[in-house]
Write a structure and sequence with these properties.
heterodimer, A: 398 residues, alpha+beta, MetI-like fold, 2 domains, four-stranded antiparallel β-sheet, two-stranded antiparallel ribbon, 12 helices, 8 strands, 66% helix, 6% strand, globular, B: 339 residues, alpha/beta, D-Maltodextrin-Binding Protein, domain 2, five-stranded mixed β-sheet, three-stranded parallel β-sheet, 41% helix, 16% strand, binds glutathione, membrane (chain A), transport (chain A), transmembrane transporter activity (chain A), Amino acid ABC transporter permease (chain A), transmembrane helix (chain A)
Chain lengths: 398, 339
């Protein structure tokens, strides 16, 4: 698309002004200037920062990661004591972030889909209730919602001494929920391996079944077969492992409930807050996705004699997915990023641990650089996964 | 492409703002030029720094900032306050968001040497303690094995806590929340068995935030040394000196019996130490780079250390002088000679 102007008459040789008036040349010049400015600005900021740190005698570098952290962290998925180093502390924070984001994404998808469908229900009450839910929780800032849940949970439940038992051996207290868990045993490792094997077997059977369906039109009861394989294999592993039955049952000991698995009020507040807030956006995405499917599809399904619920599950939802996935990805990213608000209610996520670390070591820039990189990594992973999923769901022309 | 250019230009101007001049005395000159001291204080710890009913900041820590403003700018009211949590404070100081941090901050080696701070002395000698509900039935810290403890992040408190339990071979479960209101609310709701911080902070929390102060006790054990004092960023020694000597002047005034009521009369005193302090015999102000009335204004407008302590710490929290009595009365407050 070259638009180089010919000099009138084509005789005059090109002068400097001709070059400067040439759009292509100008474009190149602009780009160079822009890049130069960006580099200059970056260099200016970096050198200034270094000069300031130097002047104030603030040490730099990542060496602090090996020093003993010396502070306690309330919950951790890996072994951590105050004697562990800062790198381990940050790892604890990272895993806590992943835990709450992962569970939050799954739960908000389920809840959001239910409310999104409910908003289109033909039942007036259901429709209105869903609308109230969405409009309320969507319009209150998520930080306030976290504070709200964190104010409710420790106040709503009894002290450890008079714990409330909704189910046998499940204790609800103002220190969180305690549930019994099996005592660690080799059998559970076997079961994990069996589960992985089951998934692989199921994957291949699924492939084979689809092929057969395409080729011969014969359906295969894939759901039942999969469930059978999964539970069968896991059960066999359990029996081979000696069928252990010992349970770690929570009970009051000293000041606190000891034993079992504790779901802390901080974790609950963050999970509930993020899930509910994000589920309202998911609901809207699902609703608009469904509405984007032409009504002709409903009518066609109806004329085939399909029930409304089957039509929704088999015809409408799969098509609306295609519209919904990109905005859904955005919501997942938002949830992950919003999880950094956990610091406000004392859940030890990555930001919380990083804040403490930078405060104890003074390495603010290093600590921030670590968590920025991690959030970027998490977001990119989520995006990549969702892009892959999107491609898979996209309309395949046959 | 145009966008990029604009962005780049934007980044440049941000950089220009972010830039700090690096000549000596820059902080001091900057404060003089803007006409007020930007002072980082606690978000609300009555007795040390808290806004009163009229929104005016008051407390022992606040008085340090007021003293510095009186010395440098001639008016103790020329201070602007930035309330900050423990976790925010050092970054704020390092980045120049505040000129001075006067917020129950413990002087430690790491903070002094590694965080690029300079401490200007100790305006309150403290130690860490434990606050528990009476109903817990605990009378000593050694009975706290297995307890859940509420604590704030980025403090010496959380480090001492871990050290103490480790040394005693006991276990604990921390609940770490950044904001004092959230932390104390969690404690009073029963989320934790114990709330721990500096003993002065415990007294303040118990007196001013507990639903019923009598339901809570402070355990007798003090598990650490917490010398609290004002801090500034390294890089301008002249500014650091002014902060240090403003605090010293308050203590020296108490030692010499000079207070806000008698300071005008004291100008006629024959005592050479008083004459030097009040600028009657000149030299001290010049050495600090301010005028000779610097200490006179501190005492006149803010009061001496004892007055500040009495009207803030004793009046609000009922705490006696204890470690913070003058050395002549068996305490640790000891002014370095003003000469
Ligand atoms: N002196 C200790 C602790 C100071 C501290 O931050 N204490 C808490 C508990 S009293 C506080 O003042 N919090 C008030 C806030 O976060 O606004 C230190 O310097 O690390």
């Amino acid at each position: 698309m070259s638009k180089t102007q010919k000099a009138p008459g084509g005789v005059r040789s090109k002068g400097l002004t001709d070059y400067l008036n040439d759009e292509n040349v100008r474009a190149v010049i602009y780009q160079i200037v822009a890049i130069a400015l960006v580099i200059l600005a970056g260099w200016y900021l970096v050198s200034n920062t270094l000069a300031n740190l130097e002047r104030q005698n603030i040490s730099t570098g990542y060496g602090f990661l090996n020093l003993e952290a010396s502070f306690g962290i309330s919950e951790s998925m890996i072994d951590y004591t105050p004697q562990s180093n800062y790198a381990t502390a940050l790892m604890v924070g990272f895993l806590n972030t992943v835990k709450v984001a992962f569970l939050g994404i799954i739960l908000c998808t389920i809840i959001g889909t239910i409310f999104g469908v409910a908003r289109l229900s033909s039942n007036w009450i259901v429709r209105k209730l869903a609308t109230v839910y969405v409009e309320t929780f969507r319009n209150i800032p998520v930080l306030l919602q976290l504070f709200f849940w964190y104010a409710i949970i420790p106040n709503a439940f009894p002290a450890a001494r008079n714990a409330f038992q909704p189910l046998p051996d499940v204790l609800l207290t103002n220190r969180g929920m305690y549930i019994p868990v099996p005592v660690a045993d080799n059998a559970y490792d076997f079961m994990g391996i069996a589960a992985i094997i089951a998934f692989i077997v199921i994957y291949f059977i699924n492939k084979w079944a689809t092929k057969r369906l395409d080729a011969t039109g014969q359906p295969f009861p894939i759901v039942w077969a999969s469930l059978g394989i999964f539970f069968g294999l896991v059960l066999i592993a359990y029996l081979i492992g000696g069928a252990p039955t010992a349970m770690d049952i929570p009970a009051l000991k000293g000041f606190n409930i000891q034993g079992g698995y504790n779901i802390s009020p901080e974790f609950m507040s963050v999970l509930i807050g993020l899930t509910i807030y994000t589920s309202t956006y998911v609901a809207e995405v699902v609703r608009s996705g469904i509405q984007a499917v032409p009504t002709g599809q409903w009518e066609a399904a109806e004329s085939l004699g399909l029930k409304r619920s089957i039509a929704l599950r088999k015809i409408i939802l799969p098509q609306s997915m295609r519209v919904a996935i990109p905005p859904l990805t955005n919501q997942y990213l938002n949830l992950t990023k919003n999880s950094s608000l956990a610091v406000a209610v004392g859940y030890p996520d990555l930001v919380s641990v990083s804040n403490t670390t930078m405060n104890q070591t003074g390495q603010a820039i290093e600590a921030i650089s670590i968590y920025m990189a991690v959030y970027l990594g998490l977001s990119l992973t989520t995006s990549l996964f969702m892009n892959w999923f999107n491609k898979k769901m996209a309309l395949v022309e046959r | 492409m145009k966008m990029k250019t604009i962005l780049a230009a934007g980044a440049m101007s941000v950089a220009a703002i972010a830039a700090n001049n690096a000549h000596a005395g820059a902080a001091l000159d900057g404060i003089k030029a803007k006409g007020f001291v930007q002072c980082g204080v606690n978000t609300g710890l009555p007795g040390f720094s808290a806004a009163n009913a009229e929104g005016k900041w008051e407390g022992l820590d606040v008085d340090v900032c007021r003293a510095v403003a009186a010395a440098l700018l001639g008016d103790a009211e020329k201070v602007q306050y930035t309330p900050m949590t423990a976790a925010q404070r050092f970054t704020a100081l390092q980045s120049g968001e505040i000129d001075i941090l006067s917020r129950n901050t413990t002087w430690t080696l790491t903070r002094d040497a590694k965080l690029g701070l300079t401490f200007g002395g100790v305006n309150y000698y403290d130690g860490q303690g434990f606050l528990v509900p009476k109903a817990l039935g605990v009378s000593h810290a050694t009975e706290l094995d297995g307890a859940t403890v509420c604590v704030e992040p980025g403090t010496t408190t959380e480090l001492n806590l871990a050290d103490y339990f480790r040394a005693k071979g006991m276990s604990f479960e921390p609940v770490v929340i950044e904001n004092i209101n959230e932390t104390t609310a969690a404690f009073f709701a029963g989320r934790c068995d114990v709330y721990t911080t500096d003993a002065s902070g415990l007294a303040s929390v118990r007196q001013t935030m507990a639903p019923n102060p009598d339901d809570y006790v402070i355990l007798p054990e003090i598990i650490s040394k917490e010398p609290l004092g004002p801090a500034v960023a390294q890089g301008d020694d002249q500014w650091a000196d002014l902060v240090r000597w403003s605090l010293m002047a308050m203590v020296e005034a108490e030692e010499l019996g000079v207070n806000s009521g008698n300071v005008d009369d004291m100008k006629k005193s024959e005592n050479p130490a008083i004459q030097r302090l009040l600028g009657v015999s000149p030299g001290m102000g010049e050495a600090l780079g301010v005028d000779e009335e610097w200490a006179y204004r501190i005492i006149k407008q803010v009061g001496n250390y004892g007055e500040s302590y009495k009207s803030n710490v004793t009046a609000k929290l009922g705490l006696e002088r204890g470690l913070n009595a003058l050395w002549t009365d068996g305490g640790l407050q000891y002014a370095i000679p003003v000469r």
